[in-house]
Amino acid sequence: MNAMTFKAFAVTHEIDLNKIASDCGIPKKYTWEEPLVLQDEILEAILHKELAELQKVLVFSFGSIVFINHRQQDEITTFLNYIRSFEPSIVIAEAGRYTDDYSLHVGENDSIVLTDEYVVVPEFEVFYPELISTVIAKSVALERTEEQLGKILDRLETMIDRLEKGNLRVSDKELASTTAKIVRHEYNTIAYIMILDKPDITWANSTAGDFYDRMSEFFELNDRYEILKHKTEILTNMMDGFSTISHSIRGMFVEWVIVILIVAEVLLMLVEILR
Q1: Higher pLDDT, residue 184 or 19
Q2: Which of 7, 90, 210, 271 has the fewest C-beta atoms under 10 angstroms from its C-beta?
Q3: What pTM value is reported for the model?
């Protein structure tokens, strides 16, 4: 067989697979850990054209989409516009910001060969396309999350600069907004990208399990996840520090107001006595 090509996009945080399945007439309820696989007549109806047998699209609940054997940009654009009808937050013009290309080759070698651009396997197995798609889908989703974490760090750096200049007050709104971004980042990474979870086939088939583990290790999914998790913990500790400083300043301000009021009351009493 010819090489299978994979093109992955991370387009949003979350995609409701059940809405898409219902629109496509697929009588199945999808859970968050399995992708929606679109192919044959269903995919042809979406793209309004005839497709080859091995062309398919996998849509993941954590916001990634993988196109298999789709080399024409118009097919990708048409499908992204279709998904956007369910998820308006998707920006088509920025779809190529978090993307990755990969391919599957069947060779005469006795072992699996992994590279940055392709994998070579001794013989084709039906689970290879889905496992490859899952790994690169998680990889681009992590890339998106990593960049968003960088934006949060930049925001905290601004707050630190203000502290260094003596501006110790941070509004509750700003604290809440930044904390919400950190919590959202952690939720998107742990709960939705599901780095630590494996496809069901890997538990039933040892060959599939070994292949998925090798792919995950090669793309450093676990290592990247641990780094993100560690950075999130640091961010949380920093926000706790900002919150403590902010509350201390507010507490001190209230104490000074009370002292001033007491002094004012004493002065008023003295004035009354002198009169």
Answers
A1: 19
A2: 271
A3: 0.77
